[in-house]
């Protein structure tokens, strides 16, 4: 079986528990920092954050297993009380409340983008754009269904408050990830 071709596997080809722990902790710090890039959406319990970009990049760079594990650790740390969610918040209510679906979606998206990156989908713009679109679709699918259920609001309200304000930002995040990942791969390949 050939080795999965992720940035993590190329940059750190040697696997150890210590290196994986370091990557999980470093990835958690990265996700926490991205979550602090936060803008409130008037009338919505869901803020615009850099967290979705963080999940897409982390999954792609780390691969499915480590990306998923890192995002799961991030969620567990936030639920346990570490102030690492948006606006330095923490607690189980972030997972069980209106924003929980977005977190679950990011967890799954980190695995999916990592699995696609392992098949080299993050190395060329023609394949990284669909990878990021798939990841973003997963995030918002879970987020919107969860938001609708947790608030009891109509679907039109859910789409107005949980999707529409995010579209431009998500397009920008997809553009950032879709140019950054192939650029990093070109740099890494030259080494």
TrEMBL record:
GO molecular function, one term: biotin transmembrane transporter activity
Residue ranges crossing the lipid bilayer per the database entry: 20-41, 53-77, 97-118, 125-147, 167-188
Keywords annotated in UniProt: Membrane, Transmembrane, Transmembrane helix
Gene3D superfamilies on file: 1.10.1760.20
Single GO cellular component term: plasma membrane
InterPro entries registered for this protein in UniProt: BioY
Protein name: Unannotated protein
Originating organism: freshwater metagenome
């Amino acid at each position: 079986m050939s080795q999965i071709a992720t940035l993590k596997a190329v940059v750190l080809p040697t696997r150890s528990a210590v290196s994986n722990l370091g990557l999980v902790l470093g990835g958690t710090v990265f996700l926490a920092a991205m979550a602090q890039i936060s803008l409130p959406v008037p009338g919505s319990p869901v803020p615009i954050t850099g967290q979705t970009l963080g999940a897409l990049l982390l999954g792609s760079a780390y691969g499915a297993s480590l990306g998923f594990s890192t995002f799961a650790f991030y969620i567990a740390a936030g639920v346990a009380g570490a102030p690492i969610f948006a606006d330095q918040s923490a607690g189980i209510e972030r997972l069980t409340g209106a924003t929980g679906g977005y977190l679950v979606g990011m967890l799954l998206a980190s695995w999916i983008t990592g699995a696609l990156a392992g098949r080299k989908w993050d190395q060329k713009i023609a394949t990284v754009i669909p990878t990021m679109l798939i990841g973003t679709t997963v995030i918002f699918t879970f987020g919107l269904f969860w938001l609708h259920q947790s608030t009891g609001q109509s679907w039109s309200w859910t789409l107005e408050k949980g999707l529409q304000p995010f579209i431009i930002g998500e397009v920008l995040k997809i553009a950032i990830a879709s140019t950054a990942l192939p650029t990093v791969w070109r740099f890494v390949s030259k080494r």
